Amino acid sequence: MTTPRKSALPPGPKRNWLPRFGIVQVKDALEQLAQERQKYGDIVCLPMNHGPTWLLSHPDHAQYVLADKASNYPSMVGENPDPLLGRGLFVSNGDFWRRQRRMVQPSFHRPRLARMVEGMVRDAQQHAERWAPQAATGARLELLEQMRRLVITMLGNSIFSEDARANRASLREGMDTLGHLLHGPPRTLLDVVKGLLGQHRAQMKRFFNAIEQVNTDMYRLIAERRQSPAGRDDMMTMLMDARDTQGAAMTDTELRDELVNLFIGGYESTSVALTWILYEVARNPEVEQRARGELATVLGGQPLTAESLQSLPYTRAVVEEALRIHPPAWTFMRRALNEDEIDGYTVAPGTKMLISPYLLHRHPSFWTEPERFLPERFLPEQKEVRHRYAYLPFGAGQRQCVANGYTVTLLTVALATLLQRCQWRLVPEHPVVAWAATTRRPRHGVLATLHAAPQVA
Ligand code: HEM
Q1: Does residue 391 line the site of ligand 1, with CB under 6 A?
Q2: Domain boundaries, the chain
Q3: C-alpha distance across the termini of the chain, in Å
Q4: 271-322 pLDDT tens trace
Q5: Looking at ligand 1, which residue's alpha carbon is closest to its atom 1?
Q6: What number of CA atoms fall less than 13 Å from residue 179's CA on the CB side?
Q7: Is the CB of 319 under 6 A from ligand 1?
Q8: Ligand 1 center–CA 265 separation, angstroms
């Protein structure tokens, strides 16, 4: 950042990027970004329709924009009103965001996470038990769909002590509909034609109906809780008990917004992450064997506890490596407020900064053999030497994922508990194709056969 001024703009493609990145996704957006990065280097200027956008792929630049000079690069969320997320954490800014973040953050403090482990283990065990008939016959299952079911149960229990899948059918349906509309398959030419023929309006109607359904359920839940608080140890209780610096509690609308943000923020990305984890374990038999060995030594067939979770560095490393190679949040944006300079290039006010964890996680100067799945790189002794901003599955700086510790705990518990009970094998004729939609997910899911866990000697 101290190099002499080079020229006004960083290098980049001359033609407009939108046709290849916008309405019709003919090609994976990430593949295109990776190509531009390879061609032009760590800072690329992408001439997009809505103004210049810089693709930053060096950890120093990520650190500069997300942390060191974060005040000049606020998040772009909240620039338009959001019918689904309201004024929740994801989409608020400024003083209101700060107030809400202070009230939500304690729900994820370490001692609380430890208390959640038992419930997470129970949810994963029950899920694995439901798989028993399939495991007995080696039946096929689509893993993304299965992980969605497990994650909604785990999230529901953490957030409001209820299995949203089993007990709150309409909330689950609403979430599923929203999930499908928000994170569903990419738009094809056919979708655009359908849109022109009026189907877009029908989709919007479904979207708003689903929001209404979710709102009805959320407000009902809030009313039930306000009537009988019942002293539960869940996030909803924490949020209801939280007070801002003036001593004020959240209103029903603020509570609804934060609950929806936690649910929406967590549901898709965590389901996708867990699917990629299971996929990599199945693809790498030596990794699976080592993880099973660790679980057998540490747990000896007993259920995981908050304490024994601390003694599973390799299992946790599998989770962290899967988040490196398949970061569900593959990109996020910031926008420059004032003129600035990065690496000798002048940043005009309004310039958008695109930071892609996917590209950072593969930067050849910071990762050896970046395309290989090597959990060892996340064992404690190796972590220390890494550039802190070369690994950003949960973002960084003040807008970093509020639930990062919770999520890594959830994923490690789920992986350990599922491995204790079963084994899954990929179906070779089913291609697993990564696709960067709102999250980077397997476009056609992951098909696997299910089996009972092997005995570890
Ligand atoms: C593997 C799973 C997850 C990934 C990859 C992920 C990733 C991220 C990232 C990258 C951000 C920051 C975006 C930015 O800086 O612009 C973020 C923010 C956020 N995440 Fe997560 N997340 C995950 C799970 C969760 C879960 C389980 C929850 C809730 C229980 C959650 C709730 C949130 C919220 C509320 C924010 C907004 C924070 C703020 O702006 O103050 N996330 N997440």
Answers
A1: no
A2: 18-452
A3: 54
A4: 999 999 999 999 999 999 999 999 999 999 999 999 999 999 999 999 999 9
A5: 270
A6: 24
A7: no
A8: 6
Q: Which two tokens stand for residue 279?
A: 């996929």
Say which range, 115-119, 161-165, 280-284, has the weakest mean pLDDT: 161-165
H/E stretch holding 92: none
Give the pair of three-digit tokens for residue 368.
Answer: 């050896």
Cα separation, 176 vs 195, in Å, equals 22
Work out the mean pLDDT of the chain and round it to a whole number: 88
Ligand 1 centre to CA of 140 (Å) is 31
Give, for 239, the enclosing helix (H) or strand (E). Answer: helix 235-241
157 lines ligand 1 (CB under 6 A): no
Centre of ligand 1 to C-alpha 206, Å, is: 25
Kindly state if the Cβ of 278 falls inside 6 Å of ligand 1: no
Q: Which atom of ligand 1 is nearest to the CA of 398?
A: 41
Has residue 186 got a pLDDT over 60? Answer: no
What's the per-residue H, E or C state across 116-161? HHHHHHHHHHHHHHHCHHHHHHCCEEEHHHHHHHHHHHHHHHHHHC
Cα-Cα-Cα-Cα torsion 269, 272, 275, 281, nearest 10 degrees, comes to: -70
Closest to 291 measured CA to CA, from 190, 231, 373 = 373
Gyration radius of the chain over CA positions: 22
3-state secondary structure of 48: strand
Backbone angles phi, psi at 455, to 5 degrees: -75, 130
Q: In the predicted model, what is the mean pLDDT of residues 92-103?
A: 93
- pLDDT for 250: 97
Q: 78: Cβ below 6 Å to ligand 1?
A: no
Name the residue with the closest Cα to ligand 1, atom 21: 401
Q: Which architecture does CATH list for 18-452?
A: Orthogonal Bundle (1.10)
Which pLDDT belongs to residue 23?
Answer: 45
Q: Are 155 and 267 in contact (CB under 8 A)?
A: yes
